[in-house]
Amino acid sequence: MVAEDQEAVTAVDLSITVNPDCLSIRVLSDGATAEPAQDSRGSVALSFVRHRLQAIGGAMIIEHPASGGMSLTAQVDMARLGSQ
To answer: Which CATH code, of 3.30.565.10, 1.10.1760.20, 3.40.50.720, 3.40.50.300, is assigned to 12-82?
Structure first.
């Protein structure tokens, strides 16, 4: 999803952090830095993920590091997860 619409992606790194306060999932890819095209599968998938995260009180952050690529971080407050 993160790397699908990026040219020259050679590596994708996934990290998951769980602590008593927050669940965080981060996907970092190298390659060209660009937002997915408006009607692409990547764009639709990102919209879906953002919507689902917001429904449970979470957030999604998309960044473009100076080194290139794209970073997508999804965070959810653990207290909110327990009350769902």
So the answer is: 3.30.565.10
